[in-house]
Amino acid sequence: MYHSSYCSHGWIHTDRATTLLNDFQFPDPSIRRLTSFDLTMESAEDNFTKGLQLKAEGEHAKACEAFHAATQLKWNFTAAHIELGNAASTLKNYDRALKAYQEAIETDPLAATAYYNIALTYIDLSETVLAADWLTRTLKIDPQYRPAYIQTAQLLSQDGRDRSAIYLLIKAAYLKPYSAPPLVSAGKLYHRNTQPAAAIRCYERALRIDAWNTHAFYHLGFAQYHRGELAKAIRSLAHSVNSDPSNKLAAALLKTAYAALRPKKRAKKPIQDKLFDLAPDSVAT
Fold first, then answer.
1. Is residue 270 one of the residues assigned to a domain?
2. How many of the other CB atoms lie within 10 Å of CB of 157?
3. Residue by residue, what is the 3-state secondary structure of 162-219?
4. Which of 16, 110, 160, 240 could tie 250 with a disulfide, CB 3.0–4.6 Å?
């Protein structure tokens, strides 16, 4: 499983992919020699569940120990290795995270989540070449892994290869189930490359997937406003505000578009006190 959210800069920011207990099928447990770590007599599954609870509570160091205990009790517990890496990443202990993800791959060579999280770790370390390599490996393992397409597109865009990035974003959008945010990101790249018509088509396609996507409505309204299509822009921006009243950018642009659409009032001429200016020599003496 993975979680993603839409950031204000327009890109989809994807967190470490997470796992559930039933995401992997395990053979009979393989117990390793116990380390100096003080293991309880709880099962590996109990430690895994405890680790998830500690992680949700923000106790990432304790979560690391719980996930570590789960892997010591059941070495081929792929999900526990992955979650150990996720908790270590949160603590910025990237060496331990990379080791945990590599051990997850040892237990399950087809665990695309582990490959993907290694790529994200190398992105955090600014090792973009290694990150791109691991993203490619992820897609070889699972060609339907949407976040890998999105992250690859982001790396390509940062390298100035917008056309290739747009291609991957559109491909990511139409993996089942369809997803609107990659199309919004593709539209922003089109806009950056001064192709407003193509950008608008992307936003409209995003809205066909998600009819209440506030970001698609906002960027559609933004593009329409700058093309002088004020009535269309007002309609799109109003939909954006209605779907997300906290969208301050949409609300501000909507106000500006309304003001631009209203006809300007003519300034009233001041009323003259006298209709005629009498010359001084015409005044009766």
1. no
2. 21
3. HHHHHHHHHHHHCCCCCCCHHHHHHHHHHHHCCCHHHHHHHHHHHHHHCCCCHHHHHH
4. 240
Are 132 and 192 within one domain?
no
The C-alpha atoms of residue 107 and residue 77 are separated, in whole angstroms, by 7
What single string gives the DSSP state of each residue in 229-277? -HHHHHHHHHHHHHH-TT-HHHHHHHHHHHHHHSPPPPPPPPPPS-SS-
Is residue 151 within 8 Å of residue 119, measured between CB atoms?
yes
Q: Is there a single domain that holds both residue 187 and residue 126?
A: no
Q: Do 188 and 234 belong to one domain?
A: yes
Q: Out of 111, 129, 159, pick the residue that ends a domain.
A: 159
User: Phi and psi of 140, rounded to 5°?
Assistant: -70, -35
Q: Mind listing the pLDDT tens digit for each residue in 240-249?
A: 999 999 999 9
| Cα–Cα distance, 53 to 231 (Å, whole number) | 50
Number of separate domains in the chain: 2
pLDDT for position 261:
83
pLDDT tens, 20-51?
A: 555 554 444 333 333 334 444 479 999 999 99
- Residue 63 domain boundaries: 1-159
**Which residues are bridge partners to 5 per DSSP?**
13
In this structure, is residue 204 part of a structural domain?
yes
Q: At what angle do helices 60-73 and 44-56 cross, to 10 degrees?
A: 170
Q: Which residues contact 217 (CB under 8 A, 6 or more apart)?
A: 203, 207, 236, 237, 239, 240, 243, 250
CATH (domain of 211) = 1.25.40.10
What are the tens digits of pLDDT across the range 93-136?
999 999 999 999 999 999 999 999 999 999 999 999 999 999 99
| The pLDDT of residue 236 is above 70 | yes
